[in-house]
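Progress note, sequence design subtask.
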């Protein structure tokens, strides 16, 4: 059985087509405008999207543009009443979109579903997606799933912490999905807007509130009412703007810019940052009072190097998606899987997805095997390695000296604390520092 979203404003057509799909054993949700389609797509991830391009309140292209990546259906089919539209849409959307020409009958629908099922061949990596979005069966991921279940049963705000690329938005989406709330999942990056527009984005504005405010606008809190508001990179919000956010978190009421009336809002706030708890305190990028409001339930998302057992599952899943989109049947050899699991993936899941996509483009579509590039690391990963102590060719003494220097810098020269962190006696630390000083003097004299 497939979950299908049918978007078309012709009620006679949607009723007839919905009945045919139900007879075929599929579960159908019907939307007749952009707003209904957006609301449906925010609540769950559909297997198939059947989309009319001409809707009463806009274009079907707007539906495609606004689908969150984590909610994107595996298969998208454009519905049109004119076969000439098919070639025009192909120029815009590319070849990876299928089409149905009205009037649609049972035979057309069976052919469409048949093509989709043919692509889902056995052995093509049918990986379970927990909460409809997350992949992984390692012990660390199952601990994460347990935390998601627990917090989803409450209304507590959540702070997600983890390195860039670990999938913080997907985890936020999983919490939203597991909570079963009726409202939408609304995501926003706190570093994406200028400081002048942050208030307008979060809280909305009234017409004429400022130059350019030509109409009333609902803020993100209102859009997420009854659902979940995901604030990514929360530490990018200017510190002097955070008290405004704090007030909304405390009162659950917003006042639009230029307005006087308070509006009640009821949504869970999930925020995310790639900074550690120690960095939050040291860098003072997040006010302490707002931290306690946002981090009622903090969750640390593990980096990919701490769940290497999931690399194969993720790689196969990414390749499976690309095969479906491009009507290919490439697979990963055991040698390629071994290479993938031996790499440390400093860019995490995002870097792995990028590597598979890059390899897919470079591989011969007529072949049966995905060919990985000679070098897996991205330019950013190679740059990060330059700053790390463990570089081939360095002596043990050089690495030890660098570690001691970095530790002393971190504790502002506090030698007793540095010795404790390094696991050596204070006397040993002083001996090492005296040796380094003597070596430096010898180099100067030479």
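Output:
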């Amino acid at each position: 059985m497939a979950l299908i979203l049918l978007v078309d404003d012709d009620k006679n057509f949607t009723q007839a087509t919905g009945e045919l799909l139900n007879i075929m054993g599929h579960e159908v949700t019907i939307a007749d405008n952009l707003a209904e389609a957006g609301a449906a797509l925010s609540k769950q991830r559909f297997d198939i999207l059947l989309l009319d391009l001409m809707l009463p309140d806009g274009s079907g292209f707007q539906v495609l543009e606004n689908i969150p990546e984590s909610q994107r259906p595996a298969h998208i089919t454009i519905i049109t009443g004119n076969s000439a539209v098919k070639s025009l849409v192909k120029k815009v959307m590319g070849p990876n979109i299928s089409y149905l020409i009205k009037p649609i009958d049972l035979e057309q629908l069976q052919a469409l579903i048949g093509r989709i099922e043919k692509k889902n061949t056995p052995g093509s990596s049918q990986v379970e997606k927990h909460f409809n979005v997350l992949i992984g069966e390692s012990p660390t991921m199952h601990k994460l799933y347990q935390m998601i279940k627990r917090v989803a049963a409450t209304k507590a705000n959540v702070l997600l912490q983890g390195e860039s690329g670990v999938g913080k938005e997907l985890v936020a989406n999983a919490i939203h999905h597991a909570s079963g709330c009726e409202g939408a999942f609304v995501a926003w990056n706190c570093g994406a807007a200028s400081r002048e527009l942050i208030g307008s984005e979060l809280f909305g504005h009234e017409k004429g509130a400022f130059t350019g405010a030509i109409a009333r606008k609902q803020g993100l809190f209102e859009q997420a009412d009854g659902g979940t508001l995901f604030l990514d990179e929360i530490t990018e919000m200017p510190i002097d703007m955070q008290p405004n956010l704090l007030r909304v978190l405390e009162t659950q009421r917003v006042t639009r810019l230029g307005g006087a009336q308070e509006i009640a809002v009821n949504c869970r706030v999930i925020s995310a940052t790639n900074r550690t708890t120690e960095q939050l305190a040291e860098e003072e990028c997040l006010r302490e009072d707002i931290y306690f409001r946002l981090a009622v339930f903090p969750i640390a998302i593990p980096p990919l190097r701490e769940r290497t057992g999931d690399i194969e599952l993720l790689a196969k899943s990414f390749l499976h998606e690309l095969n479906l989109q491009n009507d290919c049947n490439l697979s990963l050899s055991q040698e390629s899987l071994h290479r993938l699991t031996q790499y440390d993936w400093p860019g995490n899941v995002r870097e792995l997805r990028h590597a598979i996509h890059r390899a897919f483009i470079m591989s011969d579509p007529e072949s049966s095997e995905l060919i990985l590039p000679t070098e897996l690391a991205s330019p950013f990963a190679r740059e990060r390695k330059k700053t790390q102590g463990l570089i081939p060719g360095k002596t043990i003494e050089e690495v030890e000296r660098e570690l001691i220097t970095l530790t002393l810098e971190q504790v502002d020269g506090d030698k007793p604390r540095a010795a404790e962190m390094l696991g050596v006696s204070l006397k040993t630390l002083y001996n090492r520092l005296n040796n380094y000083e003597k070596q430096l003097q010898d180099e100067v004299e030479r």
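The longest helix spans residues 426-445. Work on this subtask will continue into the next period as scheduled.
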